[in-house]
Amino acid sequence: MANNDDKTPLAGGSVTTAPSSPQPLPDPSTVGQLPPKQADPTFWDASKTISGDSFTKIHYMPCARQAWLTGIAAGFAFGGVRLFLRASVWNACSWTAGAGTFTGIVIWEACRWKRGREKDGMIRAMQIMEYKRLEREKKLEERREQQRLKEEEERRRKEAVKNWWKPW
Prior knowledge:
Layout: E1 7-9, E2 15-17, H1 43-48, H2 52-56, H3 64-84, H4 89-163
Antiparallel strand pairs: 1-2
Main location: mitochondrion
Region (Disordered): 1-38, 139-168
Protein name: Cytochrome c oxidase assembly protein COX20, mitochondrial
């Protein structure tokens, strides 16, 4: 329901509704590649996105292969060192699992952070390219306007020179 403040009386007694206020324009520093912020997802929302296909195609996920292979190598190295230092097999296996998991998580997060930085850098590069394109268009438009004014002035000058001697 509209307020009475939004209505404007016209001649003849009819009433029109004033247009709603325009939406604010987006920040000019963005080019528009980023989607608008949404509410933070919950654990339940995240669990709905996991399917059986997620586990069969996990090797296609960015950073997963690197994190797994590095985790396996680190776990093998830590477990081997523990066995070499005459720890029990159970203790060496525990160190292998812990070191592999910890190293995998660290590598995964580092890789994701690096990819995020690269993505931000690419967005920034696109913003700079858009800014430079707009600047080039602005300069080109200014040159065209100067050229048009110069041609107009030249045309007026020629017209004035041409018509000074004609009596009619």
